[in-house]
Amino acid sequence: MVTNSTINKCTICLLTIISIVTVVHAEKPKNMRSEKNFSVYVPESDETKELNLKKHQTGSVKVYLSTLGEQVDKYMVSIIRLGEDQIVASGLTDVHGEINFRKLSPGKYTVYLNKKVNVEENELTTVKIGDFFLKATP
Question: Among the four 2, 14, 45, 89, which has the fewest Cβ within 10 Å?
């Protein structure tokens, strides 16, 4: 036989279980998370990509060039950290128009492509940054 006392005991047990589950699944406050922001901006395409790095991780940026038929090797690509007036990393693209920057600390970066000029025709190249990808590395 179910009595009011039994129903009250079950209700209390159920509320206790709900409270425990709520505490166990509560999220950490945002200021307590160990994630760090890593973002890269390409002014040429006005595109920004972001990645949350966890503690002890660094970021990598892989840049791909695109063109209308020109060679894409040996183009200088540079990365500057926001707020600093110096180049953090730079290098030349490979024969496929790719370059990879590794072990960048958390922060905000801008990627620049140094354009080549055709001196004979006084024109800029059609090569541009086609795409870029971010990756977290342990």
Answer: 2
